[in-house]
Design goal:
The chain is an alpha/beta fold. It has two domains: 2-207, Anaerobic Ribonucleotide-triphosphate Reductase Large Chain; 217-301, no CATH class. It has twelve helices and twelve strands. The strands form five sheets. A four-stranded parallel beta sheet has the order 1-6-7-10. A two-stranded antiparallel ribbon has the order 2-3. Strands 4-5 form a two-stranded antiparallel sheet. Strand 6, helix 3 and strand 7 (98-103) form a beta-alpha-beta unit. Helix 1 (2-12) packs parallel to helix 2. The longest helix is centred in the last third of the chain and has 21 residues, at 258-278. It is globular and about 80 Å long.
């Protein structure tokens, strides 16, 4: 619920968010402190969806963008896949938000092998949230064995290809539940000692280590490559009928302002780095991540 407050603040100031719900215990999982059963991640996802819809931005016509992530080994994966359905209870749907899957290589290997897929309660399998790659696979095999022995209370067993087929059907039907690959992101994690990467953002171009006390934020800009071309010279060569006969290498060498591009990139990076220091951060967790890691992104258009 503290993160729900953070979402409200970030939405208020035009921020979009990608949020992982994989850590939340499964529906029916026992909460020992109060001797009650958990409602699972879906109702909490609905809370976040409601907060997002309450926050109007700019001229009052636009709402914040939001995407929910879940790993396909969560006990409530099937309910998660129903979030974008056009029918069913509104309490269990998030039709104005987006949904994505945080997929480990282990899942894809089981699909290739036509193997079984186990879905667990994160409360009983905490190591699966904090690991990736080969370490994750070892823990997964360990818990699968425990499940077969009846040593785990809550788990589901299905064919991996059946679950994958359901994911593909939902993707074709709703355009959602796009797949991002957990191990690939963490393999290229630039700050592994800081934390794992548990999700990306809505557009999936950002991949930053984050923790419960540190929300990943990237400072972004892009370079207009069209402005780096000598268009007057290109038109002159076209009029002479010479341009099309030139090789790609010749065009790159003769018509691109490489010095201008170099200068533009240097200025842009310096400006982005300055923004990290001078920016307004709606919530302390976002400021912590930016000042700790100083993540910048310079793209092209």
């Amino acid at each position: 619920m503290e993160k729900a407050t953070e979402l409200a603040q970030l939405s208020k100031y035009d921020g979009g968010m990608g949020i992982s719900f994989t850590k939340l215990r499964a529906s029916g999982s026992l909460i020992k402190k109060i001797n009650q059963l958990s409602s699972g991640p879906i109702p909490f996802i609905k809370v976040y969806d409601t907060i997002k819809n309450a926050m109007l931005q700019g001229t009052g016509k636009k709402r914040s963008a939001l995407v929910f992530y879940l790993e396909p080994r969560h006990y409530n994966i099937e309910e998660f896949l129903d979030l974008k359905e056009t029918n069913g209870s509104d309490y269990l749907r998030v039709r104005t938000c987006n949904t994505a899957l945080w997929v480990p290589d282990e899942f894809m290997k089981r699909i290739e092998a036509d193997d079984d897929r186990y879905c667990f309660d994160p409360n009983e399998t905490e190591e699966l949230t904090s690991t990736w790659g080969e370490e994750f696979e070892r823990w997964y095999a360990y818990y699968a064995e425990k499940a077969e022995k009846g040593e785990i209370k809550m788990f589901k067993k299905m064919k991996a290809r059946a679950l994958y087929r359901e994911i593909m059907l939902k993707l074709a039907k709703t355009g959602n539940f796009w797949m991002n690959f957990k191990d690939t992101h963490n393999r290229h994690n630039q700050a592994p000692s800081y934390g794992n990467i548990h999700s990306s953002n809505l557009c999936t171009e950002i991949s930053i280590a984050n923790r419960g006390d540190s929300t990943a934020v990237c400072t972004l800009a892009s370079v207009n490559l069209f402005a780096m071309i000598d268009h007057t010279r290109v038109m002159s060569e076209k009029e002479k009928g010479k341009f099309e006969s030139l090789s790609i290498e010749a065009k790159m060498k003769d018509f691109v302002d490489w010095d201008g591009l170099k200068e533009t990139v240097e200025i842009a990076i310096q400006a982005l780095d300055n923004i990290v220091d001078f920016n307004f951060y709606p919530y302390p967790d976002t400021e912590k991540n930016s000042l700790d890691l100083r993540p910048l992104g310079l793209g092209v258009l």
